[in-house]
Write a structure and sequence with these properties.
Elements: H1 17-36, E1 40-41, E2 47-49, H2 51-54, H3 59-62, E3 67-69, E4 75-78, H4 83-93, E5 101-110, E6 122-131, H5 136-152, E7 158-164, H6 165-175, H7 179-190, H8 194-203, H9 208-216, E8 221-222, H10 225-232, H11 237-256, E9 262-265, E10 278-284, E11 292-296, E12 310-316, H12 317-326, E13 338-342, H13 347-359, E14 364-368
Parallel strand pairs: 1-5, 7-9, 13-14
Antiparallel strand pairs: 2-4, 3-4, 5-6, 6-12, 7-10, 8-9, 10-11, 11-12
Length: 374
Protein backbone atom coordinates (compact mmCIF):
# COMPACT_ATOMS: atom_id res chain seq x y z
CA UNK A 1 0.00 0.00 0.00
CA UNK A 2 1.16 3.54 -0.73
CA UNK A 3 2.94 4.96 2.35
CA UNK A 4 1.09 8.27 1.86
CA UNK A 5 -2.12 6.51 2.85
CA UNK A 6 -0.61 5.10 6.05
CA UNK A 7 0.85 8.26 7.56
CA UNK A 8 -0.49 11.69 8.43
CA UNK A 9 1.07 14.84 6.93
CA UNK A 10 3.72 16.64 8.97
CA UNK A 11 2.26 18.69 11.78
CA UNK A 12 -0.93 16.68 12.36
CA UNK A 13 -1.54 13.44 14.22
CA UNK A 14 -4.08 10.79 15.14
CA UNK A 15 -5.38 10.88 18.72
CA UNK A 16 -7.10 7.77 20.06
CA UNK A 17 -7.59 5.57 23.11
CA UNK A 18 -6.98 6.98 26.58
CA UNK A 19 -5.28 10.12 25.24
CA UNK A 20 -8.36 11.00 23.21
CA UNK A 21 -10.81 10.33 26.04
CA UNK A 22 -8.59 12.24 28.50
CA UNK A 23 -8.63 15.31 26.27
CA UNK A 24 -12.41 15.15 25.90
CA UNK A 25 -12.84 14.89 29.68
CA UNK A 26 -10.47 17.79 30.36
CA UNK A 27 -12.17 19.88 27.69
CA UNK A 28 -15.54 19.11 29.27
CA UNK A 29 -14.33 20.24 32.71
CA UNK A 30 -12.97 23.49 31.31
CA UNK A 31 -16.16 24.05 29.31
CA UNK A 32 -18.27 23.55 32.45
CA UNK A 33 -16.15 26.10 34.33
CA UNK A 34 -16.57 28.66 31.54
CA UNK A 35 -20.33 28.04 31.41
CA UNK A 36 -20.51 28.57 35.18
CA UNK A 37 -19.34 32.17 34.59
CA UNK A 38 -22.35 32.77 32.32
CA UNK A 39 -20.80 32.12 28.89
CA UNK A 40 -22.98 30.78 26.07
CA UNK A 41 -21.83 28.46 23.28
CA UNK A 42 -20.95 29.71 19.80
CA UNK A 43 -19.70 27.83 16.72
CA UNK A 44 -18.19 29.63 13.72
CA UNK A 45 -17.09 28.11 10.38
CA UNK A 46 -13.83 26.20 10.04
CA UNK A 47 -12.97 28.29 6.97
CA UNK A 48 -13.59 31.97 6.26
CA UNK A 49 -12.85 34.59 3.62
CA UNK A 50 -9.16 35.51 3.65
CA UNK A 51 -10.06 39.17 4.27
CA UNK A 52 -11.44 38.31 7.73
CA UNK A 53 -7.84 37.69 8.87
CA UNK A 54 -5.73 39.62 6.35
CA UNK A 55 -5.63 42.97 8.15
CA UNK A 56 -4.78 41.48 11.53
CA UNK A 57 -1.61 39.54 10.63
CA UNK A 58 1.65 40.58 9.08
CA UNK A 59 2.91 39.46 5.69
CA UNK A 60 5.15 36.70 7.05
CA UNK A 61 2.33 35.15 9.09
CA UNK A 62 -0.04 35.38 6.12
CA UNK A 63 2.20 32.87 4.37
CA UNK A 64 1.38 30.35 7.12
CA UNK A 65 -2.35 30.35 6.32
CA UNK A 66 -3.92 27.40 4.53
CA UNK A 67 -5.46 29.11 1.49
CA UNK A 68 -7.78 27.75 -1.18
CA UNK A 69 -10.44 29.02 -3.59
CA UNK A 70 -14.17 28.49 -3.95
CA UNK A 71 -15.92 28.15 -7.33
CA UNK A 72 -16.47 31.91 -7.52
CA UNK A 73 -12.75 32.57 -7.18
CA UNK A 74 -12.88 33.93 -3.63
CA UNK A 75 -9.79 33.28 -1.49
CA UNK A 76 -10.69 31.24 1.59
CA UNK A 77 -8.55 30.15 4.54
CA UNK A 78 -8.77 27.60 7.30
CA UNK A 79 -9.08 29.66 10.48
CA UNK A 80 -5.66 30.33 12.09
CA UNK A 81 -7.32 31.99 15.09
CA UNK A 82 -10.85 32.10 16.51
CA UNK A 83 -10.99 35.73 17.62
CA UNK A 84 -11.51 37.46 14.22
CA UNK A 85 -14.17 34.90 13.27
CA UNK A 86 -16.13 35.45 16.46
CA UNK A 87 -15.65 39.21 16.24
CA UNK A 88 -17.14 39.09 12.73
CA UNK A 89 -20.12 37.07 13.93
CA UNK A 90 -20.69 39.20 17.03
CA UNK A 91 -20.47 42.46 15.11
CA UNK A 92 -23.02 41.19 12.61
CA UNK A 93 -25.75 39.65 14.81
CA UNK A 94 -25.04 39.88 18.56
CA UNK A 95 -24.64 43.56 19.45
CA UNK A 96 -28.18 44.92 19.14
CA UNK A 97 -27.93 46.63 22.54
CA UNK A 98 -25.14 47.59 24.91
CA UNK A 99 -25.51 44.64 27.28
CA UNK A 100 -22.41 42.48 27.86
CA UNK A 101 -22.23 39.41 25.59
CA UNK A 102 -20.34 36.31 26.79
CA UNK A 103 -19.53 33.41 24.44
CA UNK A 104 -17.51 30.20 24.72
CA UNK A 105 -16.14 28.26 21.74
CA UNK A 106 -14.10 25.16 21.05
CA UNK A 107 -12.63 23.63 17.92
CA UNK A 108 -9.47 23.50 15.81
CA UNK A 109 -7.21 26.13 14.31
CA UNK A 110 -4.75 25.65 11.46
CA UNK A 111 -1.35 27.19 10.74
CA UNK A 112 1.04 25.92 8.08
CA UNK A 113 4.14 26.50 10.18
CA UNK A 114 7.60 25.39 9.14
CA UNK A 115 8.39 21.75 9.90
CA UNK A 116 11.62 22.95 11.54
CA UNK A 117 9.63 24.70 14.29
CA UNK A 118 8.40 21.37 15.64
CA UNK A 119 4.89 22.73 16.20
CA UNK A 120 1.55 21.15 15.40
CA UNK A 121 -0.21 22.63 12.38
CA UNK A 122 -3.63 21.65 13.70
CA UNK A 123 -4.42 22.65 17.29
CA UNK A 124 -7.46 21.99 19.43
CA UNK A 125 -8.55 25.06 21.41
CA UNK A 126 -11.22 26.23 23.82
CA UNK A 127 -11.79 29.85 24.79
CA UNK A 128 -14.14 32.69 25.65
CA UNK A 129 -14.89 36.22 24.48
CA UNK A 130 -16.61 39.07 26.35
CA UNK A 131 -18.11 41.98 24.36
CA UNK A 132 -19.57 45.35 25.37
CA UNK A 133 -17.56 45.73 28.57
CA UNK A 134 -14.52 48.00 28.55
CA UNK A 135 -13.99 48.00 32.32
CA UNK A 136 -11.03 46.75 34.31
CA UNK A 137 -13.52 44.38 35.96
CA UNK A 138 -13.95 42.62 32.61
CA UNK A 139 -10.15 42.32 32.34
CA UNK A 140 -10.05 40.76 35.81
CA UNK A 141 -12.90 38.37 35.01
CA UNK A 142 -11.02 37.10 31.96
CA UNK A 143 -7.78 36.47 33.83
CA UNK A 144 -9.53 34.93 36.84
CA UNK A 145 -11.59 32.67 34.57
CA UNK A 146 -8.46 31.54 32.71
CA UNK A 147 -6.83 30.66 36.03
CA UNK A 148 -9.92 28.81 37.28
CA UNK A 149 -10.24 26.96 33.95
CA UNK A 150 -6.63 25.75 34.11
CA UNK A 151 -7.11 24.69 37.74
CA UNK A 152 -10.22 22.72 36.76
CA UNK A 153 -8.03 20.60 34.46
CA UNK A 154 -5.92 19.53 37.46
CA UNK A 155 -3.00 21.85 36.67
CA UNK A 156 -1.73 23.70 39.73
CA UNK A 157 1.84 24.79 38.96
CA UNK A 158 1.51 27.61 36.44
CA UNK A 159 1.93 31.38 36.18
CA UNK A 160 0.00 34.05 34.27
CA UNK A 161 2.10 36.91 32.89
CA UNK A 162 0.24 40.17 32.28
CA UNK A 163 1.29 43.11 30.11
CA UNK A 164 -0.36 45.98 28.26
CA UNK A 165 0.15 46.70 24.57
CA UNK A 166 -0.53 50.41 25.16
CA UNK A 167 2.64 50.81 27.25
CA UNK A 168 4.78 49.84 24.25
CA UNK A 169 2.60 51.67 21.72
CA UNK A 170 2.70 54.85 23.80
CA UNK A 171 6.49 54.86 23.61
CA UNK A 172 6.36 54.27 19.85
CA UNK A 173 3.94 57.16 19.39
CA UNK A 174 6.11 59.51 21.46
CA UNK A 175 9.15 58.47 19.41
CA UNK A 176 7.30 59.13 16.15
CA UNK A 177 7.78 55.57 14.93
CA UNK A 178 5.67 54.78 11.88
CA UNK A 179 3.33 51.77 11.73
CA UNK A 180 5.57 49.66 9.48
CA UNK A 181 8.62 50.14 11.69
CA UNK A 182 6.57 49.51 14.83
CA UNK A 183 5.44 46.17 13.45
CA UNK A 184 9.00 45.17 12.52
CA UNK A 185 10.24 46.01 16.02
CA UNK A 186 7.31 44.26 17.69
CA UNK A 187 7.90 41.04 15.75
CA UNK A 188 11.50 40.91 17.01
CA UNK A 189 10.50 41.70 20.61
CA UNK A 190 7.86 38.95 20.52
CA UNK A 191 10.61 36.55 19.44
CA UNK A 192 12.89 37.91 22.22
CA UNK A 193 15.41 38.93 19.54
CA UNK A 194 16.35 42.28 21.10
CA UNK A 195 19.55 42.56 19.06
CA UNK A 196 17.51 42.50 15.84
CA UNK A 197 15.01 45.00 17.29
CA UNK A 198 17.86 47.35 18.21
CA UNK A 199 19.39 47.00 14.74
CA UNK A 200 16.08 47.95 13.09
CA UNK A 201 15.79 51.04 15.29
CA UNK A 202 19.36 52.04 14.48
CA UNK A 203 18.69 51.68 10.73
CA UNK A 204 15.49 53.75 11.05
CA UNK A 205 17.39 56.39 13.06
CA UNK A 206 15.24 56.12 16.17
CA UNK A 207 16.68 58.39 18.92
CA UNK A 208 18.80 56.51 21.45
CA UNK A 209 16.45 57.56 24.27
CA UNK A 210 13.57 55.59 22.80
CA UNK A 211 15.73 52.83 21.35
CA UNK A 212 17.08 52.01 24.78
CA UNK A 213 13.65 52.26 26.39
CA UNK A 214 11.95 49.92 23.89
CA UNK A 215 14.63 47.30 24.47
CA UNK A 216 14.42 47.91 28.22
CA UNK A 217 10.67 47.13 28.46
CA UNK A 218 11.59 43.45 28.71
CA UNK A 219 13.22 44.20 32.08
CA UNK A 220 9.95 45.35 33.64
CA UNK A 221 8.73 41.99 34.83
CA UNK A 222 7.88 40.32 38.12
CA UNK A 223 5.56 41.35 40.94
CA UNK A 224 3.43 44.49 41.02
CA UNK A 225 6.61 46.39 41.99
CA UNK A 226 7.67 46.09 38.33
CA UNK A 227 4.84 48.46 37.46
CA UNK A 228 6.38 51.19 39.62
CA UNK A 229 9.70 50.82 37.81
CA UNK A 230 8.00 50.94 34.40
CA UNK A 231 6.01 54.01 35.41
CA UNK A 232 9.16 55.99 36.22
CA UNK A 233 10.58 55.44 32.72
CA UNK A 234 7.80 57.15 30.72
CA UNK A 235 6.02 60.49 30.51
CA UNK A 236 3.54 59.97 27.68
CA UNK A 237 -0.15 59.73 28.56
CA UNK A 238 -0.84 56.40 26.80
CA UNK A 239 1.93 54.50 28.60
CA UNK A 240 1.08 56.03 31.97
CA UNK A 241 -2.59 55.15 31.49
CA UNK A 242 -1.59 51.54 30.77
CA UNK A 243 0.36 51.34 34.04
CA UNK A 244 -2.53 52.87 36.00
CA UNK A 245 -4.92 50.30 34.54
CA UNK A 246 -2.61 47.39 35.39
CA UNK A 247 -2.40 48.62 38.98
CA UNK A 248 -6.19 48.76 39.17
CA UNK A 249 -6.38 45.32 37.60
CA UNK A 250 -4.10 43.89 40.28
CA UNK A 251 -6.40 45.22 43.00
CA UNK A 252 -9.46 43.60 41.40
CA UNK A 253 -7.63 40.30 40.92
CA UNK A 254 -6.87 40.27 44.63
CA UNK A 255 -10.62 40.06 45.22
CA UNK A 256 -10.67 36.87 43.12
CA UNK A 257 -7.87 35.51 45.32
CA UNK A 258 -5.69 34.56 42.33
CA UNK A 259 -2.73 36.92 42.74
CA UNK A 260 -0.45 34.01 43.62
CA UNK A 261 -0.70 32.97 39.97
CA UNK A 262 -0.06 36.46 38.58
CA UNK A 263 3.07 38.36 37.53
CA UNK A 264 3.68 41.30 35.19
CA UNK A 265 5.74 41.57 32.00
CA UNK A 266 5.72 44.89 30.13
CA UNK A 267 7.80 43.26 27.38
CA UNK A 268 4.91 40.94 26.55
CA UNK A 269 3.56 41.73 23.09
CA UNK A 270 1.66 39.81 20.42
CA UNK A 271 2.29 39.27 16.74
CA UNK A 272 -1.42 39.92 16.18
CA UNK A 273 -2.14 43.57 15.44
CA UNK A 274 -5.59 43.67 17.01
CA UNK A 275 -4.58 43.75 20.71
CA UNK A 276 -5.13 47.24 22.15
CA UNK A 277 -4.68 46.98 25.92
CA UNK A 278 -4.11 44.30 28.53
CA UNK A 279 -2.56 41.07 27.21
CA UNK A 280 -1.79 37.92 29.19
CA UNK A 281 -0.40 34.41 28.79
CA UNK A 282 -0.20 31.33 31.02
CA UNK A 283 2.99 29.28 31.29
CA UNK A 284 3.93 26.04 32.99
CA UNK A 285 6.87 23.66 32.91
CA UNK A 286 7.05 20.79 30.43
CA UNK A 287 5.81 22.94 27.53
CA UNK A 288 7.93 25.37 25.55
CA UNK A 289 5.20 27.89 24.76
CA UNK A 290 2.20 29.50 26.46
CA UNK A 291 -0.63 27.05 27.14
CA UNK A 292 -3.19 29.89 27.16
CA UNK A 293 -3.18 33.47 25.93
CA UNK A 294 -5.53 36.39 25.54
CA UNK A 295 -6.07 40.12 25.68
CA UNK A 296 -8.22 43.14 24.91
CA UNK A 297 -9.05 44.07 21.30
CA UNK A 298 -11.36 47.09 21.42
CA UNK A 299 -10.75 48.16 17.81
CA UNK A 300 -11.41 44.87 16.03
CA UNK A 301 -15.21 44.54 15.91
CA UNK A 302 -15.72 47.87 14.18
CA UNK A 303 -13.89 46.52 11.12
CA UNK A 304 -16.71 44.02 10.60
CA UNK A 305 -19.67 46.26 11.44
CA UNK A 306 -20.70 47.62 14.83
CA UNK A 307 -17.90 48.82 17.08
CA UNK A 308 -17.67 47.45 20.64
CA UNK A 309 -15.03 46.80 23.32
CA UNK A 310 -13.94 43.17 23.60
CA UNK A 311 -11.61 40.88 25.50
CA UNK A 312 -11.01 37.11 25.43
CA UNK A 313 -8.58 34.23 25.83
CA UNK A 314 -7.90 30.78 24.42
CA UNK A 315 -6.50 27.60 25.98
CA UNK A 316 -4.48 25.38 23.62
CA UNK A 317 -5.64 21.92 24.66
CA UNK A 318 -2.80 20.06 22.92
CA UNK A 319 -0.20 21.97 24.97
CA UNK A 320 -2.25 21.73 28.17
CA UNK A 321 -2.52 17.94 27.80
CA UNK A 322 1.24 17.68 27.21
CA UNK A 323 1.84 19.62 30.43
CA UNK A 324 -0.58 17.44 32.42
CA UNK A 325 1.11 14.24 31.23
CA UNK A 326 4.68 15.49 31.71
CA UNK A 327 3.89 16.74 35.21
CA UNK A 328 2.25 13.41 36.09
CA UNK A 329 -0.98 15.17 37.07
CA UNK A 330 -3.57 12.67 38.26
CA UNK A 331 -6.23 12.68 35.54
CA UNK A 332 -9.62 11.12 36.17
CA UNK A 333 -9.65 8.68 33.26
CA UNK A 334 -12.80 7.51 31.55
CA UNK A 335 -14.20 4.27 33.01
CA UNK A 336 -13.74 1.15 30.90
CA UNK A 337 -16.79 -0.64 29.57
CA UNK A 338 -18.04 -3.73 31.40
CA UNK A 339 -17.55 -6.70 29.10
CA UNK A 340 -20.49 -9.11 28.85
CA UNK A 341 -19.79 -12.43 27.21
CA UNK A 342 -22.52 -14.06 25.16
CA UNK A 343 -23.15 -17.06 22.98
CA UNK A 344 -26.02 -17.97 20.68
CA UNK A 345 -27.86 -19.55 23.61
CA UNK A 346 -27.78 -16.56 26.00
CA UNK A 347 -27.67 -13.66 23.50
CA UNK A 348 -31.05 -12.24 24.57
CA UNK A 349 -30.08 -12.33 28.24
CA UNK A 350 -26.80 -10.58 27.48
CA UNK A 351 -28.61 -7.80 25.61
CA UNK A 352 -30.99 -7.35 28.55
CA UNK A 353 -28.12 -7.18 31.05
CA UNK A 354 -26.23 -4.66 28.92
CA UNK A 355 -29.37 -2.50 28.61
CA UNK A 356 -29.86 -2.58 32.38
CA UNK A 357 -26.26 -1.46 33.01
CA UNK A 358 -26.57 1.37 30.48
CA UNK A 359 -29.72 2.64 32.20
CA UNK A 360 -27.65 2.87 35.38
CA UNK A 361 -25.11 5.05 33.56
CA UNK A 362 -22.58 2.26 33.08
CA UNK A 363 -20.82 1.30 29.88
CA UNK A 364 -21.40 -2.20 28.58
CA UNK A 365 -19.96 -4.00 25.57
CA UNK A 366 -20.98 -7.41 24.24
CA UNK A 367 -18.23 -9.96 23.51
CA UNK A 368 -18.97 -13.21 21.68
CA UNK A 369 -17.78 -16.41 23.32
CA UNK A 370 -18.92 -20.01 22.67
CA UNK A 371 -18.76 -20.99 26.34
CA UNK A 372 -19.82 -17.70 27.97
CA UNK A 373 -22.10 -17.43 30.98
CA UNK A 374 -24.06 -14.28 31.96
Amino acid sequence: MNKVLLHTPDGVRDIYGTECSDRLLISSKIHSKMKSFGYQDIDTPTFEFFDVFAQEINTNDARELYKFFDKEGNTLVLRPDFTPSIARCASKVMLEDDEPIRVVYQGKTFLNTSNLQGKLKENCSIGVELFNDSSVYADAEMIALMIESLKSSGLSDFQVSIGDADYYKGICEEAGIDEETEEMIRVQIVQKNYFAAERIMTEREIPDKYKNLLVKVAEFMGSDEALDKAEKEVTNKRSLSAIARLKSLYKVLSEYDVCQYVSFDLGMLSKFNYYTGVIFSAYTYGVGDAIAKGGRYDSLLGKYGKDAPAIGFVIILDDLMSALYRQNVDIEHEENAILIGYSEENYCDAIAKAAQLRKLGKKAALVFSDDSEI
